[in-house]
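Could you please consider the sequence and fold following this short note?
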Amino acid sequence: MNKMNDSLCSKRLSGKGRRVRQWMMLVFASSCLTALPAQAQTQVQTEAKGPSGPTAQAAAQPLPDGLAQAIFAGGCFWCMEAPFDQVEGVLSTTSGYTGGTVTNPTYEQVSAGGTGHTEAVRIVFDPQKTSFEKLLQVYWRNVDPTVNDRQFCDVGTQYRPEIFYMDPKQKEAAERSKSEQARTKPFKADIVVAITPATEFWPAEEYHQNYAAKNPVRYWFYRRSCGRDARLKELWGEQAGH
């Protein structure tokens, strides 16, 4: 097994990495391959749209004419890339850090707290094929919008859910979408997701990019252990993301 990914997965599931400790790692190697859901088996064979290598750094550069971008935070960025990769018209998803004060932060700095950043995904899309409003629909069904200092087993403001708008049109669309969700939500708790102006987005380290596609077994083990899908179904029922 890859030592870097094993260490990273263990850290995400430990108190040190601000993750809930899961000693299921003891049986991980022998059992979780057969426990993978059908969706994960499909992902193993599917090339993700997210960037790799130099492309991840290039994601911070200006966009070509005709394309647009969105930045969403919803806890672990591994789990936020995959839902958007499935949307037609999305050209790339990049895991990264935003909303903080430290220049070019590392994963260790952000996950320890104190930099002000949150894990987020930057989505580049073709407005002729999809819309910001469509991306917002995907976003809501993939987050717990009732908390502002954690997501699922990930505790701390570095995992807060947040929508970062690029311009006044995105701000208006996000506020309208939030109001609609508040009106139609199938749960009682208030929606507390902040809508704030986008600031510098720093692409995360390469080993974080396309994690679900490159490491499907570890990804699904972490996702299940974190209780993400169970909570999403509790909140959104059959409309829950996955």
User: Anything to note?
Assistant: The first helix runs from residue 3 to 12. The chain is about 40% helix and 15% strand. Strands lie at 68-74, 90-98, 118-125, 150-151, 154-155, 161-165, 194-197, 201-203.
